[in-house]
Amino acid sequence: MQLDLKIIENRFVRLEPMSPAHREAFRAACDADLETWTRLYPYPMGGEHFDAGWARFYAAPTPDRLNYAVTEAGVCVGVSSYLRIDRQQATVEIGGTYYGPEVRGGPVNPAAKRLLLEDAFASGARRVQFRVDAINARSRAAVLKLGAVQEGISRADMVTWNGRVRDTVTFSVLADEWPAVRDRLDARLAAF
């Protein structure tokens, strides 16, 4: 499996390697929903936490984290990343996803995930996983709607930045499942 940051796009979104050019629009998207960062994410990116979070996660790609700015009409409206990249085992996680509230519920998430899944499987992935906070009902529903299979819940999996102990739900799509998942996503996107 050989994953590399590159520009990938469809008629709804353009995914670009996260760069300083995206920083302020991403900051605005993060600041548009401070409650989500407090309640649902393992690390903070809203308000006064943005600069430290940017330096830690987005300032430069690392071998095990490839960040994409999700842009709509040329503006960064969020982020989604490849995480836990295991090139030898041909597995990867799509995660670290956040979108500003104004684009939730529309084509942005399924269009971005369609691009990332296609890229991962075309790059040789055998398995793509998603890990979601168990209390994040919106994200759990979105991952199921993509066509991923829920595998289980890791109890007390991590401690979030504000001290809450998080249970994590794991979902996956396997390479042989991808054609059917892709077809479902394409049909869903055609409705927009």
Written description of the protein model:
The protein is α+β, with helices and mostly antiparallel strands and 192 residues long. It has helices spanning 23-31, 34-39, 50-58, 108-122, 137-146, 178-190; strands spanning 8-9, 14-17, 65-72, 75-86, 91-99, 127-133, 149-159, 165-174. The model has no long low-confidence stretch (mean pLDDT 95).
Question: Do you know the CATH architecture?
Answer: 3-Layer(aba) Sandwich
Intertermini distance: 32 Å
Radius of gyration: 16 Å
Main-sheet strand order equals 1-2-3-4-5-6-8-7
- Helix % is 25-40%
Examine the coordinates and then state which fold CATH places here, giving the name of the CATH topology.
Aminopeptidase
**What's the β-strand tally?**
8
Written as H for each helix and E for each strand, in order along the chain, the element string is EEHHHEEEHEHEEH
Strand content: 25-35%
The global form is globular
Oligomer: single chain
- Number of domains in the coordinates? 1
Mean pLDDT across residues: 95
- Which spans of ≥5 residues are poorly predicted at pLDDT below 50? none
Q: Could you state the CATH homologous superfamily?
A: Gcn5-related N-acetyltransferase (GNAT)
* Biggest sheet layout: 8 strands, mixed
